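Milestone M4 deliverable, item 7.
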Amino acid sequence: MKIVSESLTMVGTAFGLVAALAWNEAIKKLIEQFIPKGKGVLSLFLYAILVTLAAVIITTRLGRIKERIGE
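Output delivered:
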């Protein structure tokens, strides 16, 4: 039973990675629309900052939800 549980966890993680990569591309294209092409490094740093902030906020909120449900 543990093997099935771990396999399901790995499959879920793989789908999460695929979704993250899709969002990565979508967000990069969105930023490219607002920042001129000549500002490549600036746009990469802006993208990194925005993604980091989103990750911190989402992780924090998920942690609070997990505490509320008692896991």
